[in-house]
Amino acid sequence: MDPVVVLVICLSSLLLFSLWKQSYGKGKLPPGPTPLPIIGNILQLDVKDISRSLHNFSKAYGPVFTLYFGMKPTVVLHGYEAIKEALIDLGEEFSGRGHFPVAERTNKEFGVVFSNGKIWKETRRFSLMTLRDFGMGKRSLENRVQEEACCLVEELRKTNASPCDPTFILACAPCNVICSIIFQNRFDYTDENFLNLIGILSENTQILSTPWMQICSTFPMLLDYFPGIHNKLFNNAIFLKSYILGKVKDHQETLDINNPRDFIDCFLIRMEQEKHNQQSDFIVENLLATISDLFGAGTETTSTTLRYGLLLLLKYPEVAAKVQEEIDRVVGRHRSPCMQDRGSMPYTDAVIHEILRYIDLIPMGLPHAVTRDIKFRDYIIPKGTTIMTSLSSVLYDSKEFPNPEMFDPGHFLDESGNFKKSDYFMAFSAGKRICLGEGLARMEVFLYLTTILQKFTLKSLVDPKHIDTTPVVNGFASLPPSYQLCFIPV
Predict the structure, then answer these.
(1) Is 290 left (phi over 0), alpha (psi -120 to 50) or beta?
(2) Environment class of residue 27 by beta-carbon count within 10 Å: exposed (0-12), middle (13-18) or buried (19+)?
(3) For an engineered disulfide with 107, which of 111, 192, 328, 465 has Cβ 3.0 to 4.6 Å away?
(4) Are 479 and 304 in contact (CB under 8 A)?
(5) Is Transferase among the key words of this record (predicted)?
(6) 216 in a known ligand binding site
(7) Helix, strand, or coil (residue 113)
């Protein structure tokens, strides 16, 4: 081999090893498996089920340990006590958004989910205030969800009790609620643009959950220089923002500052108010990113929960029957279920909480980051370090939920059959970065499921004991297997 080539390889290796040692030795990080130079601990992780790998590491290194995804250290929090201490007790210090390469390329530093610092605080505050103005947490939004539940039921009637895949139908309802808040209008369930929009949101979630995307998160350069399914995700993001931009332009032409119609109008008014502020974060790029975030968080997560929930009710028909008995007793057949009913329906409430616990929709949550150098327990975590929270370890804690691998509504019922709250219920994460739309999601899941079970009996095409509820992917999200069922009118 050419001596020059050998020299270059040696110098490069020494440089890379030096960088790795510098990164590895920074601060007083928690213990963890020894990383390899350059690639870190990636070979010790099962990219098809990272949450299980984290569980195994916690047995060896305790509830707080460090993994290296490539050259970057990530502090992992495993178990309720560690996650509560960080996200709730030290909420401000752990309120940063951690490294998420795909979002960094699609949203840049904008939006409400993946942004940081001043942009995040101002955008989140504005979004919460605007969503409340348009009914979140109020009776007006509940009425909107009830109306959409009726539309959903009518669409299900059109299946004529024939076998159907409920994926797209169940996505239409929550997407329409988000559309009504953002665009002031809903879509017919057969509208091609609407179905295309839902298809893109669903596809993106599936792509994000693939093992390839877990590898790309570790080695972001793959996103820039290699072919792969991530390019489809990027193209989908471009299409979605182009679609939203068209709606924004329509709103700009018809904007009445004194009469805002929806979220877009409110943002445009704020943009006008701050047009002379060179440091303002209220610009078109942030509007497009924020709406993209609201669509992704408000549609796909809820629809997946509904789809997984129906699969579990098919698997456990005795549970579905008890929910229907409670609906008949409390609501009856001649009026729509409402949120006030939930207090009188402890079993149904427990079933919904158990669905959310069992499906473990976002097993590791979204990455956090520390906003300053911080002493956490006996360790020093440098500012900007990514924090991974194993929500699975909380939702599947065997001390709080006996036999956590079993679907059991009794996890949320006391001995008298009353609903039992649990601090371990972190399906929406916790702390300052808790899901922005938690209240809306809880409302939708309750109203859609109870309305469906009020009007239909669910019929499986196979023997319930043969139904497999194991997620087909378990990366960014846990997604249920495809299935068909019949909606039999009652």
Answers:
(1) alpha
(2) middle
(3) 111
(4) yes
(5) no
(6) no
(7) coil
Single-letter code of the amino acid located at 481: P
pTM of the model: 0.91
Q: How many CB atoms lie within 10 A of CB 193?
A: 9
Asked whether 443 and 141 are in contact (CB, 8 A), the reply is yes
Rg (CA), the chain: 24
Please give the DSSP secondary-structure letter assigned to residue 488.
E
Q: Domain coordinates of the chain in residue numbers?
A: 39-489
| DSSP structural state of residue 143 | H
Does residue 17 have a pLDDT over 60?
Answer: no
DSSP designation for 112: S
Contact call for residues 99 and 367 (beta carbons, < 8 A): yes
What CATH class does 39-489 carry?
mainly alpha
SS3 (DSSP) at 73: strand
Q: How far apart are the first and last CA of the chain?
A: 79
Name residues whose C-beta falls within 8 Å of residue 45's C-beta, 6 or more positions apart in sequence. 53, 67
Encode pLDDT of 118-155 as tens digits: 999 999 999 999 988 877 656 678 999 999 999 999 99
CA distance 221 to 315: 43
Nearest residue to 366 (alpha-carbon basis) of 308, 306, 426, 421: 426
Helix residue spans in 274-331 (DSSP H):
284-295, 301-315, 317-330
Strands 473-474 and 478-479: antiparallel
Residue type at position 110: F
Residue in the structure block whose two tokens are 């804690």: 397
- Please state whether beta strands 72-78 and 386-390 pair in parallel, antiparallel, or not at all (unpaired): parallel
Q: What angle do CA 479, 103, 57 make, to 5 degrees?
A: 60
Which pair of structure tokens corresponds to residue 37?
């130079």
Q: Are 21 and 40 in contact (CB under 8 A)?
A: no
- Could you tell me which residues are beta bridge partners of residue 456? 489
CA distance 55 to 393: 7
Angstrom CA distances, 193 to 186, 197, 253, stand at 12, 6, 22
Do residues 70 and 42 touch, judged by C-beta distance below 8 A? yes
For the chain, give the mean pLDDT. 91
**CA atoms of 299 and 170, how far apart (whole Å):** 10
CA 423 to chain centre: 19
pLDDT band of 161, cuts 50, 70, 90:
very high
Residues 6 or more apart in contact with residue 434 via CB below 8 angstroms: 428
**Alpha-carbon span 428 to 356, nearest angstrom:** 9
| Cβ count near 151 (within 10 Å) | 15
> Residue 159: CB partners within 8 Å, gap ≥ 6?
486, 487
Lowest mean pLDDT across 160-164, 255-259, 293-297, 462-466: 293-297
